[in-house]
Amino acid sequence: MMVENGIRYCDYSVPHLVDETLREGIERTAFPITVEAKVAILKSMVAAGLRDFVVGCGPEEPLVWDRLHLARDTGELPADTRATFIILLNCWETAFDYFKAREAHRQWIADTVFSFGMITYRQSTGEFERAIEAFRSIGAVRFKASVLNNFRDGVSNRSYQEICRQIDWAAGLGVEIIRINDSVGSLQPHVTQWLCSRLVKDFPQLVFCLHAHNDNGLALANTMQAIHSGFQMVEGSLAGFGNRSGIAPLEQVVKLCQANNIKLGSLELDLPGLISAAHQCEEAFLQLPSIYRAVSGKFETLSNYGVLNIPDFLETNDEKGYFVNYVGLHPQTLRQALENYSSAGLDVGAIADQELWAIVDSLKNEMQASIPHIESQYRQVMGGVMDFYRASTYTPRQLAVYAEQRIFRRRAAHG
């Protein structure tokens, strides 16, 4: 294992890998998703080697949790498939009622990690303690706690002590996994390194993960820095789906770890399978595809063909497809295309540059002439897409009007 200044960068293992697509992704999408669509995504992720999933967040009814365990019991999913369910303390009683109604499935409850968020909610009245004890009463034994943070001003000694206070408090209640939440996505990687290294040193008995939001585009960097610094769990979601700018894209984390001999989770992970599942998520969530997104963008492996292709010049031999645009048109690009794709038996080396420049100029003129039509098509397509999103999304105002109507209708019916 290569270690520099106490930080490991390759050749090590991270034993725990948790996927949040079925929580963060579902929270982010503006459209309702069926349970069957969620289960189909779950099965694709399992096929790619993932085993540990956040499958819901109270006050949501745990329908995917139900389906996961039913599928596991019938052999539809592997026996080592595991579920985490997030319990927010400002609505924990609703979540508890749902699970109490499932008390007959005591083994399912015992196998589940109940992850508590907003643990400081009504702290003075012992709300966290009450919630933990209630879930214990129905058979829960595995607990995780999320420490929420606003890191926009970094981490001071005072804020670090508050983090430690919450960790000690949770650990005293039997919590064994601590999630450090970069709640507004403002951590910087050097601060992440300092914070995570210190937490691992100060709390060696606990499992830590970083829940890294991507508001500043640093979720991937912060996630990698956290495990380099000793955190033993990775959280992320396919394609980075999540609130605001999302969280760490799981397939990007996996690719980086595979490149640096960092073993994630309990099984070998199928990166192409994860990429395929990310595409499946885009379609299920009715999202515009991010075609050039790192690792899982559908056109991400397309490269500019010919003289502009630096990776080919460097002989990286990456798998890729190609496109040709106005900038890349050059006699040498034409020669390369004729050599690679022509079946006419031309002596490409004997074709003069002057003849090829004439072809370049002709194609440039055609490309320029097509621009108005292409731009018009794009505006029509995007206009339709935005109309679709606006028409299909519920707003808070619609929620208020809907509630008002039902309240007045019910009151009128009851005199």
UniProtKB/TrEMBL annotation:
<dbReference type="GO" id="GO:0005829">
    <property type="term" value="C:cytosol"/>
</dbReference>
<comment type="pathway">
    <text>Amino-acid biosynthesis; L-leucine biosynthesis; L-leucine from 3-methyl-2-oxobutanoate: step 1/4.</text>
</comment>
<dbReference type="InterPro" id="IPR013785">
    <property type="entry name" value="Aldolase_TIM"/>
</dbReference>
<protein>
    <recommendedName>
        <fullName>2-isopropylmalate synthase</fullName>
        <ecNumber>2.3.3.13</ecNumber>
    </recommendedName>
</protein>
<keyword id="KW-0464">Manganese</keyword>
<keyword id="KW-0100">Branched-chain amino acid biosynthesis</keyword>
<dbReference type="InterPro" id="IPR002034">
    <property type="entry name" value="AIPM/Hcit_synth_CS"/>
</dbReference>
<dbReference type="InterPro" id="IPR000891">
    <property type="entry name" value="PYR_CT"/>
</dbReference>
<comment type="function">
    <text>Catalyzes the condensation of the acetyl group of acetyl-CoA with 3-methyl-2-oxobutanoate (2-ketoisovalerate) to form 3-carboxy-3-hydroxy-4-methylpentanoate (2-isopropylmalate).</text>
</comment>
<keyword id="KW-0028">Amino-acid biosynthesis</keyword>
<dbReference type="GO" id="GO:0009098">
    <property type="term" value="P:L-leucine biosynthetic process"/>
</dbReference>
<dbReference type="Pfam" id="PF00682">
    <property type="entry name" value="HMGL-like"/>
</dbReference>
<dbReference type="InterPro" id="IPR050073">
    <property type="entry name" value="2-IPM_HCS-like"/>
</dbReference>
<feature type="domain" description="Pyruvate carboxyltransferase">
    <location>
        <begin position="15"/>
        <end position="275"/>
    </location>
</feature>
<dbReference type="GO" id="GO:0003852">
    <property type="term" value="F:2-isopropylmalate synthase activity"/>
</dbReference>
<keyword id="KW-0808">Transferase</keyword>
